Each structure stands twice: as structure tokens, then as C-alpha cells.
Amino acid sequence: MTLTKSNVNVEAQAIEAKKASKQLMVLSKEERNEALLHLADVLERDYETILEANEKDLENGRKKDFTEAFMDRLSLSKERIADFAQGLRDVAKLEDPTGQVLSDWTLENGLQVEKVTVPLGVIGMIYEARPNVTVDATGLALKSGNAIILKGGSNAINSNQAIVEVMHKGLEETKIPKEAVQFIASTDREATNQLFTMKEHVDVLIPRGGGKLIQAVVENATVPVLETGVGNCHIYVDKAADVEKAINILVNAKTDRPAVCNAAETLIVHKEWLAENSTALITALKENDIQVHGDDHVLEVIPNAVPAGEEDWANEYLSTDIAVKAVDDLTDAIAHIETYGTKHSEAIVTEDEKAAKTFLALVDAAALYHNASTRFTDGGALGFGAEIGISTQKLHARGPMGLPALTTVKFLMKGTGQIR
Amino acid sequence: MTLTKSNVNVEAQAIEAKKASKQLMVLSKEERNEALLHLADVLERDYETILEANEKDLENGRKKDFTEAFMDRLSLSKERIADFAQGLRDVAKLEDPTGQVLSDWTLENGLQVEKVTVPLGVIGMIYEARPNVTVDATGLALKSGNAIILKGGSNAINSNQAIVEVMHKGLEETKIPKEAVQFIASTDREATNQLFTMKEHVDVLIPRGGGKLIQAVVENATVPVLETGVGNCHIYVDKAADVEKAINILVNAKTDRPAVCNAAETLIVHKEWLAENSTALITALKENDIQVHGDDHVLEVIPNAVPAGEEDWANEYLSTDIAVKAVDDLTDAIAHIETYGTKHSEAIVTEDEKAAKTFLALVDAAALYHNASTRFTDGGALGFGAEIGISTQKLHARGPMGLPALTTVKFLMKGTGQIR
């Protein structure tokens, strides 16, 4: 299969998506949910088509000598496709985020005002070589009445295209027009860049992936972006921290799933606490194979620590490495987070309520923790049902984003001839 | 007074604002309200200082031969300054938009979750030569716990600077650090452009003014923007429109305040309605000095109409001129709005409930009206208490924005050692 710039026309696709989004807006929630359930069935039915295409991507991946973790994320199976289908069925069950009347009132002149949630319109999804996102994102978009344009990583292009073809075939048997799901079948960067600036046709861009991908979208887009996910999260162990809580939280936040964005990347530790509890800390670090990159003070206390440089404070290791910084007080801890944090999730461990209160008030991040692991910043863990991603921006949506993040509002005014 | 690039350092100002925003965050709402009331008193007390500076701007304006309307907006008086002060007092009375718990729940493991509103941090306000915005915007920012960086139009620079100096003096007698209000005392475009890209220090940019100003901000900013205000609003008079309602709404939306963004700029009229009611319409247009720019069909029906070109359909006249387009049906009307509308306010006049329902569902705009004037898209008219502007974007805030648009959220998690 040869994909070149000449056989994709992103603008035409975006125009089709916009048109389809208008048709989606007048469907009932039942019609949208039925379509999702049908897509789930079709994915399970046609799984072999998808696995054949996936094999091509895997073969290319083996040639390119990708890491085992990368190949694992790329690799599909009958069971994984069944999981995708189950995901769609779960989304179908969720409450409809559109058509919700957020507030309504009547003016003195009798004009009725309703503030109601409506779909955003067209979502542009830019993601890495993870075929599961193709299904997930489509499910969330259609559930919330939006059309979607998918641009996945080139190394999964065959799998993604097969998934979309199967879904298109499925949509033909539903009320949702298949043009509501557009797939950019190109590995050409220009195709993606076109998507970034089509303000007329695309209502929002959602980049899902590593920091570089997100940065590229933010810098080049004029279409509004929902930024997700980079997490340089800190655990601050205060002078008054309980030893057991501190160590449990640190180990959990660092090692439970080191590659996710809510994992801890830096331990900030009060010097007095460190002096008193170094033995317990050192044992825990050793038992859990945590490699410390420490500042000068830490190097003196923790054996086998390597020196931390400027890049360590800013680094998302996504491994069991951790940067450790010793501080004199809460103020220094907050200042360090202010300088290096990514406004994702930040935790303080302390029995001092006043210190906790100050930390929660002053640290600028989506999620602030007192005596708990940063790992809870997650739509699933918090009971959101579905998660679009974790927003690290302040406008529109912050923190774990559920379906409501894919909606906007309209003010509907019903009158009998009112004028001002 | 000579202002050159060399004597302003926008980055240093932004850093000061960020620092001050942290201090603001720990003040109580009472302390912030007291500061607003004190600023009101100080403005009234020192009005002469402001009037002296204003005289310089007026003199420059007269030299540059500005329009009467422009000079009127620029011109201050003791009474106008008293109005500014009253505005601050009114804002002080409003409900605090921060510290509101939007939702809270407890996970099975006992972790307490609270989603609470907090200030955005630092607001960059870019506006035209309207000294009232200097006071208004400062009041709204401080009320909501934000620091603000003001960049007003060059032609009001002396007035704005005097207002800020008076407010700074006032703030010294309050708990709010005066660094929370920064004024860019430069007419240099580069100074403004610097502000557009300081993502680290500035949390949001709010452009307030005409389309060109807003466009310049959107295109050059990497800091998130709250887009406000351009309104190319349409009144669609359907086949089944009541004559009296249609004419009252049209005249009101066009002539009540032609220069504001919720005024109507285009009448879309069903050909059958026009054929039946041309006499009444022509009389109303004449009585109200409304100049019609019509399509070919309209030119045949309405005397003294001038031909409308492509630019008329897209034009915000902000005068008593109106573009008039005749259509065959609702679908054509919606398509016209889709092509030329700015997603601000759109109205249908009809007694046909089904047509109204379709219009409200399919037209993509912040405010949709059935049988009422578009003039109600206004924070004041809708009872919002204060209005930051009218958002024509879909993310974060859409339509008239009250104080909540100047906040974001934090998830606060309180635990007893919970891990995943």
C-alpha cells in the first residue's frame, strides 16, 4: 500500500466531517448508542481483517527494531479487539453529555433562557502508534455527538486503516453517517499540519501521546487544543510526614506504573525528615529497585545515588528512576514545583494540617494530594466512566476529562417577540 | 512623556504579576472586596489627576482628527469616573467565583475528592482606547483572585497610566499587592507581542475590541486566548413569521445600538413572506433610516436598496446599514448563516415550532433566538452581574462570560495514606 500526499485531501475530509457533524446533532441519544453497540459487534465479527493489517505493521516494526514495549502496544489479538468492543459497549451505557440543561431562567419580560450542552462539532485526534485509541476516541466522539478526524502514528497505519474500514462498514448499517469518522491515511507530516489550521472545519484538536507530540500541536495549531498528559509529578515529604505513609506513597507513585503520566518523577524531601528516616527510605528504595538522582545533600545520605543535573528536575523518566531534592522548608518545596512542575499532579505527605493547607492552596496544578498517591489522577480511578485524557491546561477542562469535555454550550432563547 | 521599548520590560512585569497572583490566592474574599471598595473611593478622590492625563489624550486625539464617537469613548469626566467607581462597588457585591466546590465525593478507599474553583492566575488584557476597560477589567480580575496585565490602546495611554497610578496608590492601603495590576506603558507593538507568548507567566489573554485586534491576538498567541465579540448576527424571517414580531425584532436588533456586537447585520427573509409583507417591511425600513444592501431578488422588491456584494454578507456594519438576502427555505437560511456567521447570536422569527426547533438545533452559535431580538446576548441583560465579554469560541466559555470564566478548577484529594 502506497500512501502519498497526492491521494489524501485533508481539507475535503474535514469538510465531510463538518457536514456529518450536523447530521449527528439531530440524532437521538438512543440512535447514537445503538450505533456504538453495532460497531462493537462489527469489530468482533471482522477481527480477522484487522489482525491481517496489524501483521503488516508488526512486520514493519520488527524490521525497524522497535522496543518490546512499543511492539506490545502495537500488537492486536482477538482478545484485544474484544476489549475494544467492550469499551464501546461501556461508553454506550454512560450518561449522554449533550442536551443537558445546565441552567435555565426567565427574564422579567418573559424571555426564556436555557443554557444547554451541545457537541463541539468536529474533533481532530492526533495520537501515537496505538490502535486502541482509534476505537476509543471514535467511541467517545460519537457518543458525545461529534464527528472525528483520526491521525494516528505512522507505524500503526495499516491497523488503524483496517479498523476504520471495519467501522465504516458498520456505520452504514446505523443512523450515523460514515463520514463522521475520517481517517487521514497518510504518513505525510504536511497532512497533519493542514489539520492544525483548519479553524473553519475543525473545532478542537486533542493530541494524545508524549510531550513532543503535544508540543508540536500546541505550537503549530490555530485550532484550539485540549492539551493532555505530560506529568512531571512531585511527592513532597514534609518535616511532619508519617514514615509509613511517606514510603508507601512514594513507592506506589513511582513504581505502580512508572510509564504513565501520574507517576512520581521527583521526591522532594525535608532535610530533617531525611536525617531521621534515612534508613527506612534507603531500604524501601533498594527493595523496589528505585535509582536515585540526587542533589549534593542527598548524595551524602543515600548510597548509590547518582548526581542530579538540571535536566533531572525537568525529566519525565517514565521508569523507576527518581530525582531527589532535599529542602529546608515547605516554601522551597513549593518553589521547586513551581519551577519544574507540569501542573499535573502534586502531593504532600505530612501530619501538619497547616502545611497541607498551604500546599493545596499555593501549588498550581490540576490535582493536589494530601497523604495519598498521585496515581489517582485518572478518570477510571475517580469514577468518570470514560476518560478523554488528563488536561494540564487551565481553560475548558483541567485534570481528568470525561465526556463533558467534548461538549460546549448554547444559550437558547425562546420568546414571543421580546425586544430591548 | 516619552515611552520607548527601552523603558518597559514586559517579562519582568509578567513575573511580578505571577508572584503577586500567588499572594492574591491566599487572601480572603472579604480582603479582596475591601480592596475593590477602597479603589472605588480612591478613584473618586483623585479624579482630577486622571482628568489632567485624559486632557493630554484628548488633545492628541483632536490633532489626529479622530471621529466624534471615538473621542466620546476616550473622554472622561468627574461623573464618568464616579461611574467607574460604582462599577467596582457593584463587582465587590457579587458572589465570589472562587472557592466554589463544584462537586465532591469519596472513593471506596476513603480518599476525599473535591473539585473546586480557583483563580486562573495572571490575565493579559488587550483592548482599545477605552479607559473604562482599565478599571472594569482590573475590578473583575481582582474580584476573582487574578493578577492582571493591562495593555490598552495607545491613544488612551496617558489616561490609562494615570488610572493605574491612582489604583496603585490605593492598593498600597489594602492587602492586595500593587504588583497584581501591571500596566504596559508602551506604544510599541513588540511589547504586546512579547505578552502573547509568555506561557510561563501569563495564563490567559483576553482581547477586547474589534475583529482586527482579536485576530492579531489569536494568530500570534501561544498563551491561551478567550476570544470575544465579533458579531455578524442574522435575523431570519421565516415563511411563517408574524409580521409585527418580525418587524419589531428586526428594527430593534438593527437600530437599538447599531455599534454593539449583538446588533443584527443581515436580514435573511423567506421569499414568500417578503412577497406578502413587502409594504410593511419597506415602511419600517424607511421610518428607521435603515439602508438596505440587497441581493438581486431584494433589489426588485425594496426601493432604494443598493446591490450587496460578497463583502456585505460578511460585514459587521455597526451602523444602520443592513444586508438583506432572500431565500427559498429554512435550509438556505441556515446554510447562509453557516457560511457567513461568526457564531455569536442568530435569530429566527416564525410561528412554525418545527422550523424554530430545527434552527435552534442546527445553527452553530453561542446564542440562538426564537422570536426575540439578538440584543439580549449581554451579561447585563441576562442577569450575570458582570460581563468579561461575549465569547464566540466553543472551549472554556461560550456566549456572555461572567466572573466564572476567570476561574479554573483544582482537584483536591485528601487522604490517609491511600495508594493504588
UniProtKB/TrEMBL annotation, chains A, B:
Pfam families: Aldedh. It is found in: Cytoplasm. One of its GO terms (cellular component) is cytoplasm. Residues 9-288 form the Aldehyde dehydrogenase domain. One of its GO terms (molecular function) is glutamate-5-semialdehyde dehydrogenase activity. SUPFAM superfamilies: ALDH-like. PROSITE patterns: PROA (PS01223). It comes from the Bacteria. Coiled coil: none annotated. GO terms for biological process: L-proline biosynthetic process. Keywords: Amino-acid biosynthesis, Cytoplasm, NADP, Oxidoreductase, Proline biosynthesis. It catalyses: L-glutamate 5-semialdehyde + phosphate + NADP(+) = L-glutamyl 5-phosphate + NADPH + H(+). Belongs to the gamma-glutamyl phosphate reductase family. This is Gamma-glutamyl phosphate reductase. The lineage of its organism: Bacteria, Bacillati, Bacillota, Bacilli, Bacillales.
